Amino acid sequence: MVAALELYLDTDATRRIRVLWDALESEGVQSMRSLLDRRHRPHVSLAVAPRLDPDQVADALAGTTVAVPLRLSFQHAGQFVGRVLWLGPSPTADLLAHQALVHDRLAAAGVGLAEHYRPGRWVPHCTLSMRVPNALMAAAVRRCLEVLPLEATVVGAAVTDHARDICRPLP
Description:
The protein has helices at about 10-25, 55-60, 95-110, 135-145; strands at about 5-10, 45-50, 70-80, 85-90, 125-130, 150-160, 165-170. The longest helix is centred in the N-terminal third of the chain and has 16 residues, at about 10-25. By secondary structure, the protein is an alpha+beta fold. The protein is globular and about 45 Å long. Strands 1, 2, 3, 4, 5, 6 and 7 form a 7-stranded antiparallel sheet that branches. It is built from 4 helices and 7 strands; from the N terminus they run E-H-E-H-E-E-H-E-H-E-E.
């Protein structure tokens, strides 16, 4: 598991993604619903690292509103190498600038972040499954397309490290 700085979505978008998780499970695809004793929340991660110290992150982001009420418009489904399935919001200038600001503040404070979350490389996404069997990928993508487009508003943020049972809300 990795630690992350997560942006949480409004109630309706969260509900719709959880319904999608259930639909994926009905297709035989283990969704994020199955992880963490069902405590996993639909989100978009702004930064990830092997470990994050919540105090260091909070200090680095002091004076920054992480949970900016950005409007996200999920328009596509995607796949990362390793059978990871996700929904992607349109990468608006506001979203990309916000992620770059957060990343740069964390990096300047010496927080070690994953290279693929560096501005210019980051792919905004909401993970749906980490283990889609190759034979089920087409059916899983069809399920995703049934819920798109999906509009959402960011309503919260937190530093999470599920391996260490950390979830610290941020402003």
